[in-house]
Amino acid sequence: MPQAVDMGQGKVSHVLGRLALPLMVSLFFQNLYAYADTVFVSWLGESPLAAISLALPLTYLALSLAKGVAMGSVILMSFSRGSGDEDGAQQTASAVLPLMLLCMALFSPLMLAPLGQAFYLVLGADPGTAVHGTGFIFWLAASFFPMGYVMAVEALFTARGDTVTPMKAMLLGNILNIGLDPLFIFVLDWGVAGAAAATLVGQSISAVYIGYRLKAMFGLRLQWLPTSGNLLVWWQILKQGLFVTAAYLISPIALMLLNGILVRFGAVAVGAWNLMSRSEMMVMLPIMGLGNALATFTGFNLGRLDYERVRQGLVFFLKVSWAVIIPASLLFLFLPQQTIGLFRPTPELKLLGGIAMQASAVSILFMPLLSAVAGMSQGMKRPVYMMGQMFVYLVCLRVPLADWFADRWGQQGVYWSHPVASALTAVLALVLLRRLLRDCCKQVATGNLAPAKSELKGA
Q1: Domains of the chain by residue range
Q2: pTM of the entire predicted model
């Protein structure tokens, strides 16, 4: 099968750049589904907005599971292809969709109205919000199936160096979602349910498009039903992917805990933090896309036993990441209130938001090191490194430090605990990167990669 980008040949900067740019765009549009729904639903009032806000953790959970399966599959397929094991790559490709659909099916009971309504009532929602949310959650759970299909096929394209086709599929789905949101919500008067229904249509069209492109380009269709031979491959995917899922889940859980600390100081303190987080996320999206490209690139070239190319990929990642981060850091540091002013805040929110932005300006300077560990550890099939780093960062440092700083310096202390936690974790990241490079060099020198391949061949 052909690949759009030859990850084993050519200048490293060109290869990673071609892989990363579409991934960056895809990540942006992946986050745009929920953002667009929120904008339109907010026009309906507080109760409808609360309904989709309370369901947001479900979206994060489904995305995290799908991302874990997808990235686990990408790494296994990239490694197999880099080492010339096309049979192993094909075995992974045939197992990924049944596993993905099985994970998405975990949410399908919420499509039953009594369970959907119970979900909201358990979270403490009032009956009116629960009524709004029941229709929304029905279509939301249904949309997870085409979303899972899109991410499964995206994994096949990404492992073969094509990140452009998945980007096009994501763009097509989002355009439809944005266009259908006002039609379904206001014109057809479906209310909150219309937002999720528009997402379902957008995801479904993305699935049709990317499935068609897979057939047209490679003559392939994914296997829908599981077979007994899939079980061992599923175990290999989950061994790699569950750490990715856990790492993605730690962040929203920790952020909820931070909101719990900030709520002591009132809604303005929480709002300032959340506006900063939105701005910081927009800066980090390109780094996340580049990190996914680094993981794929590392897995492929480790399979080829090319240590120097892996090392060059890491160096390029760090250079580009800081080239993106430093200008944003300067903007946050010297023009914090002007930056936060884009959200049209009240004077008090603008003041506190400016302080939070300045704290973020320092924190994001350390983020390339943390992201490098995530990309390298996934590519080397050492996801426990990424999981361990995220656990230390968010659970052992960020939340406890925020609580401690809050007792001494109030809400501003919570904001400034952010860069302190990032700086301390960056020290750990340097240690982990050194160890990852040493392990990579040792594996290449000894050629001790056969066990990973043989396990897949035994499936």
Answers
A1: 12-227, 251-457
A2: 0.73
